Amino acid sequence: MIAIGCDHGGYELKLEIIKHLKERGIECKDLGCGGETVDYPDIAQKVCAEITNGFCERGILICGTGIGMSMAANKIRGIRAAVCGDEFSAKFTRMHNDANVLCMGARVIGAGIAREITDIFLDTAFEGGRHVARVEKIMQLEGK
Ligand code: RB5
Known about the structure:
The chain is an alpha/beta fold. It is about 45% helix and about 15% strand.
């Protein structure tokens, strides 16, 4: 189960990604918004809560740039959010950082690449090995 959310800047792209996930048979929980003007930290908080509560394995957050969402998400204990605008970053943030939230900027990238980034993010496993201790150190920075 994937948690997904957006602000008004990311609404249209979120609909595209939800449609894409459905076509792939991936269930997702939409935490808003519905196109109305909202503050992106509120949506980031809702999506990340689904992950930290254990209801969803990963999350997707979309705003205008992806940056505001990632800044907000990364303040939440247990969240490792990555803004991705290319496939390479999506692949390696999973392999090396074990990112659990993908952030994308609807005013930065188009729907085609966003779908590919989403697929790579969801289909790529954490590599483990030497990256385990590094990810642990990230978590220690938040006092965990
Ligand atoms: C909303 O206008 C915009 O600020 C937001 O979508 C996002 O880009 C923030 O980082």
